[in-house]
Amino acid sequence: SSHGPVFATLPEASQLARQPEGLVVRLPREKPLPKPKPMTRWEKFAKEKGLDAKKKRSRMVWDETSKDWVPRWGHNSIKHNQEKMNWLVEVNEDRGDNPYEDPFAKQKAIEKLSQAKQKVREMRNQLEGVGKKMPAGISGGPELGSIKRGTINLRESLARAQKSSASSGKFDSDTL
Fold this sequence. Notes:
Blueprint: E1 7-9, E2 15-17, H1 41-49, E3 60-63, E4 68-71, H2 78-85, H3 103-130, H4 149-164
Antiparallel strand pairs: 1-2, 3-4
Protein name: Ribosome biogenesis regulatory protein
Function: Involved in ribosomal large subunit assembly.
InterPro entries: Ribosom_reg (IPR007023)
């Protein structure tokens, strides 16, 4: 064959490429291997207890009220449908409900509080993953620069102080 030792002619008149021996060069990686991500509190706990990884949840769930499959989240989700159905809230004074308080505003405030608590938990997880403890009054992780850290600190410290006061921040100015 006129192509040299790389190509060889087979009996069926087709060609086969052969790799020359001794010419293999192993190149190093351009970048180093990525460092493993630190484990979250839940991952550490699950590993200690021998729990399996959470299975992927389906997007669609069965809604008993509409007798149909609806999305778990997003537009027309089961949560939004339940909120639409909850247009009347019974006031039970024996339970300690205030008849002059807006139950929908109260529910919104409870949701906002739980979201804030979840955010604090997420920040604590990030800091613990890096190997640091979260000091009181400090917000943001190490990836946050010092650009907006002061304002965020001030707002969160104010929120903590308002929640810890007897009036729950009712009379404090909310200008930040």
